[in-house]
Amino acid sequence: MPTQLHKQISVLSMNTLSFTVCFAVWVMFSIIGIPIKTGLQLSDTQFGLLAATPILTGSLIRLPLGMWTDKYGGRIVFALLMLSTILPIWLISTATKYWHFLVLGLFVGIAGGAFSVGISYTGRWFSKERKGFAMGIFGAGNAGAAVTKFVAPTLVVTYGWQAVPKVYAVAMAVTVILFWVFTYSDPEHKVSGQVTMRDQLVALKDIRVWKYCQYYSIVFGGYVALSLWMTKYYISEYGFGIQTAALIAAIFVLPSGVIRALGGWLSDKYGAHTVTWWVMWTSWAALFLLSYPQHRVIFKTIRGESTLDLGLNVWIFTALLFVVGIAWGFGKASVFKYIGDEYPHNIGVISGIVGLIGGLGGFLFPIIFGVMVDVTGINSTIFMLLFLVTCWSLVWMYTTEVRGVKTLKMIASTGMEAADSEMEARSRTAQPDGLESQTEMKGLFRPGA
Asked: Please, are residues 228 and 366 in contact by the beta-carbon 8 Å criterion?
């Protein structure tokens, strides 16, 4: 009979593996979309829509999946989710028209819903003190995007892009079998069957949920969007081939996924607010520099015109992108630490809401990226957009958490001072009677009285 610790480790391991495979499938168009774009002569906007289509379904389905996980348990919901994607993944290899890919992408996108199932299923197996770290380890399955960066380009170059969905469909089938064999159910991890969908949706009235959605839209939505876009970015901006471009893009994708476990540990130790606050400021600074477009300045000198090329070379650019990835990796964990601490009894539905909005960011950003690049012709405009979203996150965090805490402390301090003043006033009011009595008593014993 397996012990509780053995069950915890087994469930966490299989959840993380399954999420990794699901995430690799979810972003597969970031690689196979490039030869498809060339073959079908698509614009950047059309490519953005193609890459983002699976993200839409995976985002929208997160909320109901979170609810079903609370009600029926994570094991059965996760297994059925993965099973439902196998056929659509395989059928992508047979698609020939743009609309074929869009429709199949919607079905394949269900794999992206694995997060809200797995995060709830994982969180319920661990205590509050270890929940952040455990959920961070599970969230490291984001590194599935890096798996696609490593595996898919080689398959594309060697066997053609059609080989990628075939291999992924087989991998998903094997994962479902392993998951079912090595995971466990726990009836205590379900919400009462009397809880209705309407009861769970009451969470949408909580302004804190929307604030966490905003944070997650940049740390996760931005991560997904750049995971989809960066291979193409390196090809367009720096002229690399697809294998080299994907490999360099993995410098952003892989650490950002793996470091999430450390982000969970830091959030447990220092608190979700502290980690998220520094995540936002770090990404703000790096995104500001990444927004700077490549350009050339012409100076008129006494010897004629002199030019100076300004902009980020590929290594400085990649280093800054790496910093953003690390920051967002911490942020993805810290946002869910907020949720785990504040909503322990309906973590499934709250994670579903936050994951939905974050995923919608991952859907909308690539489409907006494509429009901005088509209109301006400047690749770095995508970072200008992410910079502005980060600015708004910082404003919201400061007004509600930083200044809010200062205001509460001030109110508390003022209340204490008022209480002290009242006690002192009462003391002074009572004092004259006492003094008067003492004076009278002394007068009775004065010499000559």
From this structure: yes
More confident: 307 or 269: 269
Distance CA 10, CA 18 (A): 12
Are 248 and 385 spatial neighbours (Cβ–Cβ below 8 Å)? no
CATH class of the 4-190+199-409 domain in this structure: mainly alpha
Q: How far from 396 is each of 43, 211, 278, 404, CA to CA, in Å? A: 36, 7, 14, 11
Higher pLDDT, 432 or 230: 230
- Average pLDDT (397-415) is 65
Domain-wise residue ranges, the chain? 4-190+199-409
User: 214, 216, 210, 208: which is closest to 331 by C-alpha?
Assistant: 216
Among 35-49, 69-83, 189-203, which is the least confidently predicted range? 189-203
Range from 294-303, 338-347, 363-372 that averages highest in pLDDT: 363-372
Q: What are the start-end ranges of the E strands in 291-392?
A: 295-301, 304-310
Residue 282 structure tokens = 């770090």
Residues in the chain: 449
User: CA torsion 274→271→334→147, rounded to 10°?
Assistant: 100
Bridge partners of 46, per DSSP, are none
